[in-house]
Automatic annotation (TrEMBL):
InterPro entries: ARM-like (IPR011989), ARM-type_fold (IPR016024), DUF5578 (IPR041090). It comes from Sinocyclocheilus rhinocerous. This is Armadillo like helical domain containing 1. The gene is armh1. It comes from the Eukaryota.
Amino acid sequence: MSSSKEQASISQVMCFLHEWDQGNKTVRSRMLSDFLAKNTGKTCPELELEFAQVASLFLARLTAWIRLTYMFGTCLDLQLRAVGVFLSANSSHQYMIEFLEVGGVLTLLEILGQDKLKDGDKTEALCLLQIIANAGQKYKELICESYGVKAVAECLAKSETEGTQETAAALLESLAHGNPKYKNQVYKGLIALLTCTSPRAQQLVLHILRIVQPIVKTAHHSIVEPLLNLLRSLHLEVQYEAIELIIELMQSEVRPALLRGLVAFLKPTKERNTKHKILEDPEVAKMTDSLPVLLQQAASAKTIRILAQRSEEISKELLSLRVIHHLLYAMGNQEHADAQRQASLALEYFVRMYPVVEEHVCRAMGTRLFESFMVRSIYIYTYILWWKTGKEHFSNSV
């Protein structure tokens, strides 16, 4: 027979559940706030003690209410945090199973796709998915089988809140680890995200790709174009991550394509680029129309220098792609000083490493300019006017 204390506890829980069942939105919101205040951080045994060994009855009611109301955002933040108390509790395996059996993963993924919901609510949903993914391989597979990679990736691309973006990125990274069946799906999802418009999202995705690439081992050819295009970014942190990923990929099968692309961007084709709204003034637009291409030219020269300095084998591959001709062309670009500077530094490395290159460059520049170049290559663009008229000559001779 139950003790009087146990009877009182059961009676209290039944009253709690009855109040929940009869309560409206305001009542349930208050009850959830009280629940979070009292039970956040508790273990599974502690929750069972609090609910007289029938905590699952409250979890079932909670998940049912979420499924009925999540599209309207009704107390969704409180609801998801309350579910988190159950899922994050130590020894919470039974709660996890109960939540999954009623379609919990699908509900969370559907929340991510609701445009009308706040980013804060989506962040809470992502946190719950992270808890589920951390429970083991079979749970990661369940998320992926439910088209979770696509849902999380789209949430990352569309979100305007850094906290949501970072949580989504962390979840994608988690899904790539210890998940051999779906690691390539995650990898391809990350590559697709390289074309998103948010600089913060681009930075996060590039960083995760550097972590995930060794896991998948084989680089997919579709990574080349969007990765090289990110060298056009106006954001230095995005350029940095892109260059670091290019360096990582030098040991992969896409290396030739990346090197060809880098060299080609030293001599960009003329094109017009979509202008940002703040640049719609005609005079400003005229000056900045080609800025992304110029930034890409400078970043390509910088990347070429870094790669050549790291590997003699790569530097010889670059020479076979006529990199010297293209670097000389970039040095003649008077529209962008950094492109000239980066090209000068890269060219200096090749000149000092290969006597035959030194001979060709000296002949192309002329003795006077070449001597100035060798003394202070970083400032060589101040002398470019001396040999601008001879650009056609050295372009054809190298």
